[in-house]
Amino acid sequence: MSAESNKALVRRFFDEVCNGLKLEVADTLFARDHIYHDPIIKAEPGPEGVKRVVAPYHPAFSDVRWKIDDMVAGERGIVVTRWTGTGTHTDEVMGIGPTGKRVTVSGVWIHRIAGGKIVESWNLWDAMGMVRQLGAAPAAVQARA
Questions:
Q1: Residue 53 half-sphere exposure, CB side, CA atoms within 13 Å?
Q2: Among the CATH numbers 3.40.630.30, 3.30.565.10, 2.40.40.20, 3.10.450.50, which is that of 3-144?
Q3: CA–CA dist 16, 73 (Å, integer)
Q4: CA 86, 92, 94 angle in degrees (round to 5)?
Q5: pLDDT tier at 139 (50, 70, 90 boundaries)?
Q6: pTM for the predicted model, two decimal places
């Protein structure tokens, strides 16, 4: 696949799965043995794991939106996306009850594409920044903010 085709595939993930909550689209975008890497969230392999990563943020942040800030496609089917997520905290997330606070979180999601499917991905995002914005970070972390 071309760099542009790979970027279009990843764009579909953000537009349809993340923002559109069309979780079933993950079945067509991700390989059955897709591996998800994240220092915070552990997920099972394949499209089901991806669905379980994305799905909890929709009830937790009723107006959640993932915005693509930058996207670059490189060698070996790699697509790097710098993203920003925003939303109002209206339900439990990561054990934190609803606060009504609006948060902005940034991250970088790297997808590796082979055979027309996303086969591996790495998501590095500011989870502590989100927790801090919700007022749930430990006092030592809040003091540094």
A1: 28
A2: 3.10.450.50
A3: 20
A4: 80
A5: low
A6: 0.90
How many Å apart are CA 68 and CA 90, to the nearest integer? 23
* Bridge partners for 78 per DSSP: 112
Query: What does the pLDDT look like over 28-60, one tens digit per residue?
Result: 999 999 999 998 889 999 999 999 999 999 999
37 token code pair: 């890497």
DSSP conformation letters of the chain:
--HHHHHHHHHHIIIIIIIT--GGGHHHHEEEEEEEE-SS----SHHHHHHHHHTTHHHHBTT-EEEEEEEEE-GGGEEEEEEEEEEEB-S-BTTBPP---EEEEEEEEEEEEETTEEEEEEEEE-HHHHHHHTT-S-HHHHHH-
CA pair distance 25, 119, nearest whole angstrom: 15
pLDDT of residue 11: 98
Q: How far apart are CA 59 and CA 61, in angstroms?
A: 6
